[in-house]
Every structure is written in C-alpha cells, then in structure tokens.
Amino acid sequence: MRTLTLNELDSVSGGASGRDIAMAIGTLSGQFVAGGIGAAAGGVAGGAIYDYGGTAEFGKNRTLS
User: Fold this and answer.
1) In the chain, what are the domain boundaries?
2) pTM surpassing 0.70?
3) Which of 13, 35, 51, 54 has the lowest CB atom count within 10 Å?
4) pLDDT score for 65
C-alpha cells in the first residue's frame, strides 16, 4: 500500500479547499477525502484518484505512479 504525504495530497488536489479526492487502497476500494466541509467523494476504481473539483475538467481521472 502506498501512503500519500500531505505535500502529495496538496499537489494532487491542486491545493484548493473543497476539492474532493477519492483514493483506492491496494486492490480493494476505499476512500480518502480531502477538502472543505460538505465535500463528498465520488466513486473509486482500483489504483486511481478521481478529481471532482468544480472545473471544466470535472471527473478527470488521475493515476499515481
């Protein structure tokens, strides 16, 4: 299992509060939510991070290497 540091989370989320980050752990789906109060995580697929920020790139899939 890979653990993200706070700096990595900030980088993935773009440093913007209110951003929703969902992370799968290993082959099992779990979630980690970063963002402001009221943020809700979306679906998770193994090995992927989904960025649900309110931008034109809504739902863009970003993977960790």
Assistant:
1) 1-56
2) no
3) 54
4) 46
